[in-house]
Amino acid sequence: MEAPTENLKVAPDDEAYWLSISATMKPLYVNTQLVNTRRGPAPLVVREKVRSLVDLSLSYELDEHEPFRDMKESGSSAPIRSMLADYFGAAADEIALTRNAMEGIATVLNGFRLKPGDEIVATNLCYDSNLAILRQRALRENITIRLVNLPLGPTSDSDILARFEAAIGEKTKLVSIPHIFANTGLVLPVQKISHLARQRGAFTFVDGAHSAGHIPFRIEDLGCDGFAACLHKWMHGPRGTGFLYIRRDEISHVWPLFATWSGKPNHSIEKFEEVGTVFKALPAAIPEAIIFNQEIGQAEKTARLRYLRNRWAARLSTHERFRLLTDIEVAPGTACGAFVIEGMESEELARILLDEFDINVKVFELEDPLSKGIHLSAGLANTVEQIDRFVDAVLRY
């Protein structure tokens, strides 16, 4: 079941248009890449912008020299922060530029004020590095972590919310969740979880590494207190760029990773940007990445990504040996999907696809060794021919 397309500027199956977008990206893949969760290929306009600034970034001593005169040592600037705020639906004084999602995640998970005996609620679907940060802090500060176990396969918002209702208690001060569980494409009901957490006096922090540029949303509508994302995945920006949002009233409750050397006040979002010297050619190309996304349209991007996923998932779902771990009926849907195949190990199928068909997919495994499957996430640079060739190859086994 596809999402409504009548209000889109371009249909998700308009192959001539999407081939023209793919032509502006030209990823340098050595095989058919059907995994775009680690990084999305930057379009040529972004790559050219970075290339044009490499020599300048490496040779000039004075930051005041054009074109970096408006950029801080961290690479941030008021215009860049305003563009990010406008795109993602927040105020510019709630957005800090970071070098990646992990920097923003580590800032909040390490810096949110807690005391011994406090409790953090997270989920088994959190990224493993996020859980590592929380576990280190728990050991260091005598803090309790409670994991909400969510099913690997399809579920419902009501089921997810019920599990969080049971987990968030009077000692819970921080709730840490992913916006999208990338392996299966599950989108958590962030707005409902945030509302529940706030009612119970807890700070909600969202890992948005896989939702920024992937699905339509406005941070102000999510109701969360913190949100971190990178720009090199679904925004197709330069690697080494990202942002951190913290709700204005909560900024003073989070310590920065680096002490502010310029005396930024505790309530200033800019205290999170004083991280030392960065390679300014990367953040300087953020405007080109944002414009690239704006010209396509977020709703159009999401519809195309969902269309590519459903093109393979719908065909596999009709074969009894394949069990989808993704609900392809849920809107708006994502690029991400996963499945298991009866009678064959996921690693073996992935090896065959790469060795015999030159197609790359991902085998994932959660901490529970039984929670394993094959993940795909086609991106804007992929074509329907590549998707169909993958399905034809898989069905041979």
From TrEMBL:
Keyword terms of this UniProt record: Pyridoxal phosphate, Transferase
| GO MF terms held by the record | transferase activity
Q: What is the lineage of its organism?
A: Eukaryota, Fungi, Dikarya, Ascomycota, Pezizomycotina
Q: InterPro entries per the record?
A: Aminotrans_V_dom, PyrdxlP-dep_Trfase, PyrdxlP-dep_Trfase_major, PyrdxlP-dep_Trfase_small
Q: Which organism is it from?
A: Melanomma pulvis-pyrius CBS 109.77
Q: Name one Pfam family in it.
A: Aminotran_5
The keyword Transferase is annotated on this UniProt entry: yes
Protein's recorded name? PLP-dependent transferase
Domain Aminotransferase class V, chain residue ranges per copy: 80-389
